[in-house]
Amino acid sequence: MRALDYVRPSTPEEAVAAVAGDEDAMFLAGGSNLVDHLKLGVARPGRLVDVSRLPLDEVATHDTDRGTVLRVGATVRNADLAAHPVVRSRLPGLSRALLAGASGQIRQQASTAGNLLQRTRCVYFQDVTTPCNKREPGSGCSALEGYGRYNAVLGASEHCVATHPSDMAVAMAALDTSVVVLGPDGERRMPSTDLHRLPGDEPQRDTTLAHGELVTGVEIPLTDLAAVSTYRKVRDRASYAFALVSVAAAVRTAGGVVEDVRLAWGGVAHAPWRARRAEEALRCGPVDEQAVAAAVDAELAEAETSEATTYKVPMLRGATVETLLALVEGEDA
Amino acid sequence: MDVPITLTVDGVEHRLDVDTRTTVLDALRERLGVTTVKKGCDHGQCGSCTVLLDGRRHLTCLSLAVAQDGAEVVTASGLADGDVLHPVQQAFLDHDGYQCGYCTPGQVCSAVGMLDEAKRGHPSHVTADLGAEPDLDDDEIRERMSGNLCRCGAYPGILGAVRQAARS
Ligand SMILES: Cc1cc2nc3c(=O)[nH]c(=O)nc-3n(C[C@H](O)[C@H](O)[C@H](O)COP(=O)(O)OP(=O)(O)OC[C@H]3O[C@@H](n4cnc5c(N)ncnc54)[C@H](O)[C@@H]3O)c2cc1C
Ligand code: SF4
Ligand code: FES
Ligand code: FES
């Protein structure tokens, strides 16, 4: 690890200035991803700007021109967010996604912004002795020919086939979440689905944020649809493992046909994948095995699989069918 | 870069200068000689370095000491009240909740933190009804303790110990 400068600004504006003005600086939150990367040599900042004690730890409802939203501060811990009464009752899919991630300890430590901005778990990205375009642009992608079980099947490029590892971010993508960002020129908002980007020929960039832009919070609309959301994660063991694939969903039917639906997938792409084509295919039709499988296949029309990832196609189909059917059954109960 | 910090460990206040790159785990073990806290994987994957930090269970291998300046740390050896063991410690003894004992301090701290979370009504991945008070049956205990691995496989004893502590 190289020598490291450490500062703890007391306002978000100071934090932004401290990173924006220094190419070598990075924000530090709970540290559960970044401290690991310091040790592994994956991240080599010259200065850490600690944002974990900034006054961004509130969870509160606000009435806005987009309706009522739950505003969640960047430093709110994953465990606290999952247990928050409004999240449990009005955004159950978000609570379920958070609870499916990492371990009890890590969720106590990890922050909302840190979770969104955690980096891929691609084994080559984390191993500095191997080529990786994301870590070292132009060095090559070891995952193309190597261990590929976690590789992407949608939106990948010849430069990078990594997946985004967050569970929380998948639920947020399904729930029309906005991310609030503070930069040197002030505040901006964007849909969370515009935060993460596909790798293209710049896999070193995970997100659309500029250097020094601070995520100050997220806003999640409190709709009737979100109140029936859920999250399903498929993994190699029952707990404490990253998703092979995951499904965040919410659906409302009337007279046996879909009135409204939200669907997002994890474990399939460089970003949480909002499955808009599948949503479109499901609208105004029934929720049965055949219809859901057809909608999944429509979304996967451009999927590219390798020997290591072909399993994800039937797994996504099965997980999505089960998730939506269970939601509709719950609607009747 | 060295920075002065204060850490209170098991009730004793320590002032020390740490290199900014030092983890809480290394500060405790290497600088303060607090070897109850164990280093297993050093990457957040095993839970053996778990302590209670400002009342929450916390992986000391994944946090920097400088960022925890002023923190109140309780390790497994700080849980006892003099010669009287903490109910969770006693339960691990009663149920043989260990074999080599290396993971035990982390298991014990994790269990204490987890029981407090459950008491405050926190749900888990296996809680069927997110609105209900959690009932710590065996599946709940397994899920909530999944961040602590045991290479000896003493899980049946650990489960029994945590079950006893949850009932008491
Ligand atoms: C063993 C293990 C298992 C795990 N399993 C899962 C899992 O199953 N599912 C899952 O979703 N996650 C999992 N995680 C990852 C965990 O969720 C993340 O490490 C955590 O959410 C990161 O949050 P943090 O606050 O600790 O971030 P940090 O590590 O402090 O930061 C992460 C990144 O975010 C940046 N950052 C932090 N805050 C801001 C901000 N406000 N604005 C801009 N940038 C910011 C940092 O610069 C850094 O690049 C696992 C982690 C471990 C170690
Ligand atoms: S998939 Fe992406 S992160 Fe993994 S080795 Fe290739 S370039 Fe690196
Ligand atoms: S040593 Fe910290 S989790 Fe393994
Ligand atoms: S008792 Fe040996 S590792 Fe758990």
From TrEMBL, chain A:
Pfam families: CO_deh_flav_C, FAD_binding_5. SMART domains: CO_deh_flav_C. PANTHER family: OXIDOREDUCTASE, XANTHINE DEHYDROGENASE SUBUNIT C-RELATED. This is Xanthine dehydrogenase family protein subunit M. Residues 1-225 form the FAD-binding PCMH-type domain. It comes from Phycicoccus avicenniae. The keyword Oxidoreductase applies. Keywords: Oxidoreductase. GO terms for molecular function: FAD binding; oxidoreductase activity.
UniProtKB/TrEMBL annotation, chain B:
Keywords: 2Fe-2S, Iron, Iron-sulfur, Metal-binding, Oxidoreductase. One of its GO terms (molecular function) is metal ion binding. Pfam families: Fer2 (PF00111), Fer2_2 (PF01799). Pathway: Alkaloid degradation; nicotine degradation. PROSITE patterns: 2FE2S_FER_1, 2FE2S_FER_2. The keyword DNA repair does not apply. It comes from the Bacteria. Residues 3-79 form the 2Fe-2S ferredoxin-type domain. InterPro entries: 2Fe-2S-bd, 2Fe-2S-bd_dom_sf, 2Fe-2S_ferredoxin-like_sf, 2Fe-2S_ferredoxin-type, 2Fe2S_fd_BS, Aldehyde_Oxdr_Iron-Sulfur, Beta-grasp_dom_sf. This is 2Fe-2S iron-sulfur cluster binding domain-containing protein. It comes from Phycicoccus avicenniae.
